[in-house]
Each structure stands twice: as C-alpha cells, then as structure tokens.
Amino acid sequence: MSELAPAPVAEAGRLFSYSHESGRVSLGAKLLATGVAAFVSLPLFYLFIRAGERGAGVWLQHVRTARTAELLISTLSISAAVLALSIAIALPYAWLVTRTDLPGRRFWAVAGALPLVFPSYIAAFAIVSILGPHGLLASLLGRPFPEVAYGWSGALLALGLLSYPYLYLLLVAALRHLDPALEEAARSLGHSPAQVARRIVIPQLRVPLAAGSLVVVLYVLSDFGAVSIVRYDTFTTAIYDAYRGLFDRTIAAVLATVLVALTLVLLAAEWLIVRGVAPGRLRPSRASRRTPLGRWTPAALVFVGTVTLAAIGIPLAAIGTWSARALMAAERVPLEGSAIWNSFSVSFAAALVCVAASIPVAAWAVRGHGLPATIVERLTFSGYALPGIVIALSLVFAATRIARPFYQTATLLVLAYVIRFLPEAVAATRSAFSALSPRFEEAARSLGLGRLQVLRRVTVPMIRPGLLAGGGLVFLTSMKELPATLILRPTGFETLATRVWAEASLSSWSRAALPSLLILLVSALPVWALVIRPVFREER
Amino acid sequence: MTIAALELQDVTIRYGNVTAVDSASLTLRGGSLGALVGPSGCGKTSLLRAIAGFEVPSSGEVVLAGTKLVGRGTFVPPESRHIGMVFQEGALFPHLSVWENVAFGLARGDRQRADEVLRLVGLESLGHRRPHELSGGQQQRVALARALAPRPCLVLLDEPFGGLDASLRVRLRGEVRNILRAAGTTAVLVTHDQEEALSMADQVSVMSRGRILQTGTSKEVYEEPLSVEVAALIGDAHLVRSRVAGGLVETPFGMLRVEAADGECVVRIGSEDLDVRTAGDGVAATLLTSRYFGHDVIDEFTLDDGSHYRVRLTRGSGEPGARRTIMLRSERFRVFPDVGGAVTAYRYAGDAQRRSAVAGS
User: Fold this and answer.
1) Minimal C-alpha gap between A25 and chain B (Å)
2) Which residue of A has its CA nearest to B95?
3) B52–A2 CB contact, under 8 Å
4) Cα dist from B152 to A84, B6, B8, B54, B96, whole Å
5) Integer Cα distance of B140 and B101 in angstroms
6) Chain A residues touching chain B at CB-CB below 8 Å
7) How many helices (H) and strands (E) does chain A have?
8) Which one of A192, A471, B6, B167 counts the least CB within 10 Å of its CB?
9) pLDDT digits (tens, 9 = 90+) for A18-52
C-alpha cells in the first residue's frame, strides 16, 4: 500500500484485509464438518471402551499375558532398522539427484520414487518368491537358498525398500528449496564443502528428516501385509492373530491400544523436533550450483543402480515371471471377476464419500481460522496416523455395540477406508480451496445465487481438479488396503488385495501374480500423476 | 428506470474488539455515483461489503430504495439484495466464457440481455473468449457488464482499477463513468486514490479510521474541508502547528489575518497555494529539487529555518540551488483548531503514486 499511515492504522488495515480474504463459512458447513470429524473419531472411542471395560487392573494383566514386551522389542527394533536403512538410502540418493552432475539424474530422480507403487504385501511376495528357500533363485541354483527372505532380514529388506521413497521425496523437495546464498556465504567464510554440508545443509533438513522419519516409522508400525508374508511378528500380526484365533477379543483390543499409544508418542516426538523451526524461504531465486562428482561418478551410479534394481527391478521381475507362468499354464486363469468388481466398487464408494466429506472440512480449515476449525481438521487427520488394523478393530467394536446391522457388510469396509484415507481427500481439497478466492463466490451471490447454487455452479467447478486428485488418491490407496479389508470384509468377500495376500501366504506364487499385476497397472498412473510428478514438475 | 437511493444509518462493523467502521451514515441520491475514499485500513471496503451483504454490521441500518436490508432483526442475504458488485481483480469465473460470465446472474429467458450489456461495455465480439484471454481493462469491463446484467438497484465497485496500469486506469475511469450513466445506475465506488474519487464521483465521502469525516461534492471536500483530517487527506497540503492571537496567525510565510478564535491551531498550506518569485515580497527559500510532470511541476524548497515545502507550479522555477522568495496566497490557506495528536498522523502520502499515475497518461 502506498499510504504512510501511522502504525496502528496500518496494523488494523492488515487485520481487515486478512478477514476479507478469509471470507465467511456458513453454519451448515461448520455443522457438516463437525459431524464428519466426530464420525471418524468415534470408533476409536469404542476401542478404548472395549479394551478398558473391565478396569485398568485387568487391562494391565492382559498387557502382560499378551507378550507385549516381546512385541514391543520386535516392533521397535524393526522400525529402527528400517528407519536407518531408509535414511542411508534416501539422504545420499536425494543429494545425488538434486545437487550433483550425476549422469541421467532426471531418470534416477523419478526411479527413486517408484517403489511407492508397490503395496507392501506385493513387494514382500516378490522378495519371498525370489529369495525364499524355494524361490526363483533357489530353483535356478538348484539348491535351497539361505533364509534371508523370511523373518527379521526379510522384513527389513521389504520395508526398507518400500518406505525410503517417502523420506526421499521430502528431502528432494527440501534440497531443491534451500537458499544457495546460505551455502555460498558459508564458503566465503572459509568453510569446506564438507563443513558446509554438516553445518548448513543438514541442519536445514531437520524438518523434512523428522517428518519423513515419522512417515517411515508409522509405515512400519501399521504394516501388516509385508510382515505377515515374511512371517515376522509385530503388533499388527499379533492383533490379527488375537482377533482371528480367540473367542475373547479383549487381547486384540488391548494390543491395539498399546499400538495407538506408541503412535501418539511418535507424533509428539516429531512435534517436539519440528516446532519452533521458522519456515524457510521457499523457491530460491536461482538454483544451487551442482557439485561435480568427478572420479566418484561410477560409485554414485552403482549406488543408485543397486537401489533401483533392488527396489523396482526385483519386484517387477518376480511379478512378470509368475504372471507369465500363470498365463501359460494350462489350468484356468486364477483371477476371479468378483474380486476385481469388489475392489473397484468399495474403493470407488470410499473415494466418493471422502471427496464429499472433505469439502466442508477443507472450507472451514482454509477460511475459518481459529481453534474449532483446527480441532475439526486435526480430528479428520487421526485416521492417517492410525494403523488400518486398529481402525478396523475399532469399527468392529463400534458396530457390534451401536450399529449391529452394518457388521459384516461392505458398508463397514467403506467406512474404514473413509476414516483411514479421508486425510488424503482433505489435503487435496484444502489446497484447492486455498487457491480459490472467496471473491468468486461473493460475485455469484451478488448475482442472485443462494449458497447451494453457488456451491454447485462456482465452488465445485473451480476446485474440481483438487477434488479429482483427492478422490483418485483415496480410490488408489483403498484398493491397495489390506489389514482393514481382511478384518471387516463380509464372509466370502474377496478383493484383489486379499487374493494376493492369501495366495502369497500359501506360497502359490503364480496365483498371486495376476491380481498383483492388476493392482500395479491400476495404481501406476495415479501414483505417477498425483504423488511423484508434482515433486519433479518444476525441474527442467 | 427506478430511481434508487441508498441510506446508511450509524453502520458499525466490528471484528472481535477492533472497530472497522464506526457509526457511518450516508445518503446517496438515485442515479448518482458516490465514492468512499481514504487510506487503506480506513474501513471503506468493510462498509462497501456490508452494503453488499458480505459483512454483518453489529449495529446500524442499510436501506436501499426504501427497502430495509440491514437493521434491527433484518438481514437480507446478498443474493436477494439486487446489488451488483465489481471486485478489485474482477473475480471473473475462470471456468466460464465471457458471455457465460455475463449471463451468470440472468434468468434463462433473459439471455439477450447478456448481449445487450456486452455491447454496452463495447465487448460484444469477445463473448466466446475465456477471461484469461482478455487484457486487464477488458476483464474489468466484463466484470462491470456482469454486475449490470441483472439490472441491479445499485452497483458497488471495490477498487475496480487497482490492478491496472496508470494510463489504462485513467481511460477506464471515464468509460466506467459513462457506462454507469448510460445505464442510469446508482453506484458506490471505493478507492484510496483521491484523484479517482474526485474526478468520477458526484458525491465524495472521506473516510479515516472507520469514520466518515465528511460527505459532499468533490469541490466541497477539496476546497472546504470541515476538519483538519479531511484537509490533510484530500489534496496535497502542508500542516503546520501555530497559534491564533487577536485575529492573526503566524505562519512560516508571515503573520496573516484570520477569522478564528484565539488558541492553538493547525494551518493548512496547500502546495498549489504558494507563489514563487525570483525576488520581492515573501520568504527567502532555496530550490532543492524539481519534479516535472508535463502539465505541471512540483518544486521542493528549503526555507531558511530548515523546513521543506512543495510548490505546485505550471512551470519550473529554476535549477536546484536557485534562491527564490515564496508567498502564500492569503485567500486560500485554512486554519483549524488544534485537536491534539501528531499532525503528521493525518498526512496522506499517496501523492507520489498519484502523480506518477497522471504522468503516465
């Protein structure tokens, strides 16, 4: 503004223009958003009721009888190892593709993110079917292969290669946005490149490292598919066994509450690390100078090549080989149409519900500001941090108490997907809303349209790309979801994910291959368009 | 054509404990154009948005053509007010064509009205385009056409030329004025640019810190400001603290006769009210800088007491460093009682931008 107004007036001016830009959120939207938030957090409430209904003493006794300490050690040790492996891969990989003259770095940059396409049970199935004692390699060598594919080492391999991309994508985005002037200033003050890396670059990566580590550990904590196939016991497999095997489901509920507590501790730790860090300047005015690798180029290529081969090459080779065998076999192609239809229909329903529910939540979060809006938005994000198996279990308890007719129906399964994946839709809708000025809706209202007409004719058409992206992501992740599907599906209800898991658990590799291939084909394009490409789009 | 009149009575708008608009009252004759002018943050946009129905006043009344829109227990929602609005950046719907934008507020049976208003703003050939394919000036004309299409009782313009470059801004002012006149529509314009307000509006309301300080014709608020604040906000003036004693006031340009009560006062000395001569009567001064605008020149002088004065002239008075004498044309200066507070707080420093806007035309 051009006026030289005295400070208080200028201050007030900022305040007012802020409030103009934020616009108004109707009471109806607020009520809907609150309803959505209450609905998605309700089942968790029943989990705690179920686990604690006989008092704290009984709960503690169950904690002791359920081998909790043993599970804690096995879960935490694999989490720590996977995290270490992820950082060891992601940090150098991200640095090589963003800051050096690595040959073919655009190709390697995208290849590094591709393992995101694989659901964990497919990756584990691929590893076990190749490296297992009776897998592809063993049959090629003509003798049993050592037991690396199962147990601790198998879990580390599968989860490490699957989860490093989350950390990697965050680090790439952060490295790209670091201000090169800071590094140049440090160099001009007499620091060597190594000192600059240690004192300037790494500290600036604290937030993406913390956030990425959280995502990796949450991934390991909530994973059921990979650990169940490589037969490594963690909380999720123990909960599943307790739920399936025993008449009394209290043990399952108790273990689930311990897992929730563990998740909360992690969230708090990440918050402690990230809080108080001032958001850095986005988009530096120019790109950083790339470090020439010189004689280290071959070593760097071997590194990125090995990672890519292990994380993408092996699974693709396995699925390709077994699919080919399945197709060439004389027997009937083991792929039921009903599984495909079931996968598509429940995932599509979840996507529709999530997109609709995300609109009031995102509108309030973007335009409302203030505590209630924040609480509602956070509540809708709770599903993201919680393992799918915990959500499924909570829904079982909630349904058997307050919604008996829904128990053992596909509706309950859709609800589980909605609770788990609503955050993906909210995030996408939210960013679409923040790009939409309330002025457009006001213009429509001044032209005589009521609130609902404005929503239909202006708001939804203008945020449509965000709605489609969010819906696409929910559809995709729902289709790959395994643990909640296993627990909540009605008897006899098969999806592509449950087919893969069941066949892989029985070591019938060629029967697991075709549904895997189908899942990959369907998910490759959305993962590329919605997750990987946005990170690399700015690069020319 | 209905002759609509807008009436605001003691409209107050609060955000939390901040009062954005403090009991503003205003009457606007049907068919005329009123302007709300003042520095940013003065509450003019809040007041405009309250008329449109996007802000809810905490008290006061808004009456349009005899219909109460806001008042005790009444709140007519924006879509039922028949008030058109032109937003600062146009807010044209990007997913619709120009024609669809203009037809947006029209009933299905009334589609030829869209062609009619497009013709009125001179863009009938661009109906099939998308908003982003138009220039900034064309976009604002479409926004005006869209607002006019449903034949509103009142059109509100919120800094409609804010995003445009200077020369376009000046040209569009005249066009918009003519379009509104041709449509016979009552309109309220919000702007921080006093030249825009003075040159376009039939009635100008000067706002500062949430209050309407004065409402009148352009000539009235410019030549007969009712308060020192208005005097500071409108025009390009120097405000000098002084004292009135026995019908005389002391100014840097000598003792001058005034009709005012004795006591502390503020003297307003307009930059166009000073005369520069090479010699003779007046106060000695040194030319510091000369800014050339084509149709006029602003020379800045230092008096021997060290104070600085801008003088608006039709021709420059010389090279920097030249010695001149300055006289105040005694019939033009005004004296206001000193109400305390920092005089500089009233200063309106939008001048440089305004001048360059003119220079660009």
Assistant:
1) 11
2) A462
3) no
4) 67, 13, 18, 17, 22
5) 12
6) 1-6, 9-17, 19-20, 23-24, 437, 439-440, 442-450, 457-458, 461-462
7) 29, 0
8) A192
9) 333 445 677 888 889 898 888 888 888 888 888 87
A493 against B345, higher pLDDT? A493
Cβ A45 vs Cβ A257: under 8 Å: no
Question: What pLDDT shows up at residue A14?
Answer: 33
B40/A contact by beta carbon, under 8 A: yes
Name the DSSP class of A148.
T
Residue A527 amino acid letter: V
Q: How far is A444 from chain B (nearest CA, A)?
A: 7
Which tokens go with A462?
Answer: 């203008």
pLDDT at residue A414 above 90?
Answer: yes
- Show the tokens assigned to A231: 């037969």
Residues belonging to chain B: 361
Q: Do A12 and B54 touch (CB under 8 A)?
A: no
**pLDDT for A200 beyond 80:** no
Query: With contact defined as beta carbons under 8 Å apart, do A357 and A472 qualify?
Result: no
SS (H, E, C) B48-104: HHHHHCCCCCCEEEEEECCEEEEECCEECCHHHCCEEEECCCCCCCCCCCHHHHHHC
CA-to-CA dists, residue A96 to A76, A167, A175, A285, angstroms: 30, 15, 11, 21
pLDDT, one tens digit per residue, over A178-191 is 776 677 667 666 67
* Cβ contact A442–B54 (<8 Å): yes
Other Cβ atoms closer than 10 A to B268: 21
Q: Residue B180: CB partners within 8 Å, gap ≥ 6?
A: B33, B155, B187
Give me the sheet containing B297-303, strands edge to edge: B274-277, B323-328, B283-292, B297-303, B308-313
Q: Are strands B283-292 and B323-328 parallel, antiparallel or unpaired?
A: antiparallel
Q: Name the token pair of A494.
A: 């098969």
User: How far is the CA of A448 from the CAs of A72, B48, B105, B146, B151, in angstroms?
Assistant: 61, 17, 6, 12, 11
CA distance A443 to chain B (A): 7
pLDDT tens-digit map of A346-405: 999 999 999 999 999 988 888 876 788 888 888 888 777 788 899 998 888 888 888 778
Q: Which residues of A touch B77 (CB under 8 A)?
A: 445, 450
Which of B41, B104, B348 is the closest to A16 by Cβ? B41
